[in-house]
Amino acid sequence: MAEGSDAEFYCRTEAFPLATKYRWFKDGSRIYNSEHYDIKEVSHEESGLTVKQANKGSAGQYSCDGENDVAIGGRKSTFLRVKC
Questions:
Q1: What is the pTM of this model?
Q2: How many other C-beta atoms are found inside a 10 Å radius of the C-beta of residue 13?
Q3: Which of 1, 37, 64, 78 minimizes the number of CB atoms within 10 Å of its CB?
Q4: Taking every pair of C-alpha atoms in the chain, what is the biggest distance, in angstroms?
Q5: Which homologous superfamily is 7-80 in?
Q6: Each residue's pLDDT expressed in tens, for the chain with a length of 84 residues
């Protein structure tokens, strides 16, 4: 992806009961809504992450998991490469 563009990721779970909370991570460290990240609940089955105006420091492994009253699901990951 080109530097300065927004990157969007989606995380979908299949669980019973449905996931009640999603967590997002970059390179294994939890991330939250901030000037760089916008995390939103799309539905009880899906969450979205926008990496705003990606730059060299935005590159890395992004992952998420879903949690319900029973357990935390397995983490799903992808990588972001930024062309500078």
A1: 0.89
A2: 19
A3: 78
A4: 43
A5: Immunoglobulins (2.60.40.10)
A6: 899 999 999 998 877 887 778 999 999 999 999 999 999 998 878 999 999 999 999 999 999 998 888 888 888 899 999 998
Q: Where are the domains of the chain?
A: 7-80
Q: Is 79 exposed, middle or buried (0-12, 13-18, 19+ CB in 10 A)?
A: exposed
Q: In DSSP terms, which residues pair with 61 in a beta bridge?
A: 79
What are the CA-CA distances from residue 66 to residues 33, 42, 77 (Å)?
17, 13, 13
CA distances to 4, 12, 44, 57, 82 from 47, in Å = 23, 7, 8, 23, 22
Residue with tokens 């105006």: 53
Q: Quote the CA–CA distance of 3 and 6 in Å, as a whole number.
A: 9
